## 1
Amino acid sequence: MVRSLWSAATGMLAQQTAVDTISNNIANVNTTGYKTNQNEFKSLLYQELQTRTTSANGDTKPIDSQVGLGVRSSSITTVFRQGAFLESANNFAFAIEGDGLFGIRTANGGTAYTRNGNFNISIGSNGLNLTNADGEPVLDTKGKPIVFNKDYTASNISASSDGEFFYPDKDGNPQSLNIKIGLWQFNNPSGLEKKGDSKYVQSAASGAPINEATATNIKKSTVAQGYTEGSNVQLADEMVNLIIAQRAYEANSRAITTTDTMMGQANQLKQ
């Protein structure tokens, strides 16, 4: 009976982690570029009570007798499902359709990746810098910060569906600036390490970033200017998952209560 106490306790801990994950998803239902997370569970060790050769009357048993020792949360997987496009008044808002991610130069000089394309223009000493909300530079296809001529009118800068930037000449005809917003893919995007602010960094599980501008064997993504990608959290699904996790937690709690009652009755047999 002691096994049931510990098994139920592991179930309660695992379901608490599931509720934490679901709560985080619900909290980010309106976060631009947020990707929903889901819990993965795995069973713990099994204890063998009887082997296949154990028999009660001399007959060999065809199967052994094992009992599980509970469950644990094995991983929290990010689901990179496409989010809805939301129209934005920001001229430098970009939404990705496809598997690509934007590149961001972080404060420590590293590279982070994100689906949050709600960018802005900041005035720097070398021109107009395309940055995220935290002022971190957005990278082009060469992995360098995107900088426009300081004499440009920011509202006149446009981008094509493949991320190439244009600026009108004196006749109003858009001319290419030979600057293209960078997009990267990963063989296993769920393996990216989450860093908050809807940003991810490369890890051993994700593999190396694949530059869409130079790769030839991948499906290229497209960008839409004037739109942001909304969170892909399905609120109805999260509420259902929350109820399931709550009921599982209650069931494990009831198993502990039942085991405690049985142990109490066993202790009273001598009375």
Note: The CA atoms of residues 1 and 259 lie 6 Å apart.
## 2
Amino acid sequence: MKEEAIAILQRYGQNHLLNFLPLLNEEEIHNLEEQILHIDFEQLQKLYEKSKQSDMLEEKKIEHIPYIDKEKLSPQELKELEEVGKKIILEQKYAVVTMAGGQGTRLGHKGPKGTYSLSTIDGPKYIFEIIVDRLKKARQNYGVTIPWYVMTSRENHKETLEFMEKNEYFGYDKAKVKFFMQGELPLIDQEGKVILGQDKKIKEAADGNGGIYEAMFQNGILQDMKEKKIEWIFVSGIANILSNFVDPILVGLTIKQNHVIASKSVVKTNPKEKVGVFCKMNGKPKVIEYIDLPEEMAEQTDENGELLYGEVNIATHLFHYSVLENLANSKLPYHIAVKKSGYLTEKGEYIEPEGPNIYKFETFIFDAFVRYDDMTILRVKRQEEFAPVKNRTGNDSPETATKLYNAMLSKF
């Protein structure tokens, strides 16, 4: 192994990797060297040290965040907002980004989540196909083909591209579709050591949806948008099959309120629902997780009897191009998750642990909101715009999501 790689391992206490060298052939050693030279071990060490510290208590002034209920807008208001948003779409200043870096493991599906098939009233449809159907519907409505950007991960990038090629992009213009990969960070065990996978490489995992800002910059997506003169970008995840990502009313409302960031919300089903909600923290827009919202605040209501903190984050966001440009090189805070991951031993045995054994570090897209003074929140109907496919059975499963999707299809 190159001296430079060895020196890095020694400097950051990762010497254990040298014990694996007898197990590796020349090509595997080269691949491992390349990883070592490209990983930011300084950052990894700081993240590990943070994992051992208690969170610093900080002053947190939590307040209600204003929102607009789409259902309560008058026909005249809806028409005016729609005209403003429609103009943006017709002038081809609008784009859609789908975050599709995940696998379908929790669904019992081998492959990218977007390649999972659902039983709709129109027959079997892949999740990617459902997204393309909505894009084609927008093309039919507005006479323009909206640019579509898909964020994948190293784990599913190749398979996603092959799937889309095989299915001929479900009839969408291939020239209007671009794929890009989000970043990764190594997994570390509870002693701060990196682990090897079965492929004899350092195990890495996607760095969370907050990595989208840097990934769009590094992969030339921002430059492509700039060249296309795109001004507004809608970002949502692959899991929500009812995501209404071509919504001129949201665009119009955001422009009217003179904001550069917007999100859609649905109302909390009850004060104890385990979801993140929008609020203002220390005067800035924020998504606060249910575990961080005091119980008495979670149950607070306004003069109309509605929850003060009842706007659920459904991971559907609208950004002005300037926001994505400003955030391209910003560093968001990392969140630590304790996960379970198999690993290779120095004897060449692959172990599948019974419980959580590693730390995974990730960033969240909404953590960037606090860098702005305000944002637009548009409350929409849960049954019309939020049908996540996350769990194999029960809530947010293919069964519940498909039921909502089919109900929406039957209306049109």
Note: Residues 75-90 form the longest helix (16 residues).
## 3
Amino acid sequence: MSDAILEVKDLTMQFGGSKGGFLSKPKAGFVAVDAVSFEVQRGETFGIVGESGSGKTTLGRCILRVLDPSAGSIRFQARTGAAVDLASAPIDQLRQVWRKVRMVFQDPQASLNPRLRVIDIVGQALQKSEGLRGKALAERVGQLLESVGLRPEFMHRYPNAFSGGQRQRLGIARALSTHPELVVADEAVSALDVSIQAQTLNLLQDLQEQFDLTFVFIAHDLAVVEHICDRVAVMYRGQFVEVATTDTLFRAPQHPYTRALLQAVPVADPRQRRRRGADRAEPVDVGAPARGCRFSPRCPHATELCRETRPPVRKVGGADVLCHYAGEI
């Protein structure tokens, strides 16, 4: 039985474009997210991985309604109450949902106001949603800081007194302040040193169990995704080209783009590097036209069918693959 906390259907986000007028021609816009559909089950970590420009951050911002989608639906189901379509919900309803759907940003320094103390940054949502002030606010903020591995007395400091890893922990504490059910983590560890990345990922896993959280984890680093995610969607030019469990994806990738991403991961053994690099796709401009498969200009296996006809989603080896020849290559 499905227990989906998030159901996204045919989500599309287009920037620019116009219908044209009497003296002007219509202009095609840039489609950053193209009819994406997926579900996230309660309690899981759903990863979205892809190169820069693939549309993954835009997708995350649409889920939060930081951006208004051009089309599609985003159904969020809290533990209590009716489901809400975030894509079309009015702002008053969104304010209530935003307590349950929170975001952790990529750059911990840019996302924290340097003029505010930690107690104000982390406690801002508590002041608005629960009216906490004074001792009650300080007590709650202290508890949140302890939950992310920081000392309660740090609440009176300013963000510039902390390291990058500590600032990201402050961002996580801020996200947890409203008792969310779903957290969208957008490149949450990409700006951190490798050793700090591992500590932050372990922290997120501990918090997920402690607070019964569901994560949508956006990243470009496959090693990070493999460490923390239960399922992974590989995104290329606005589309999900492969969706599978983490074990299935890394053990038996089906889409040529997924294989190209895995082949790009550094390997210590030079013999493995030569073998894995033999089938690597060459990068091209992300804006290159493709009437059929978006990956066809880069795919070493592309045929005329790939270039002319949009591929269907095929189920192969436990994965959903957007490829004409999935399972045959």
Note: The chain has a mean pLDDT of 89.
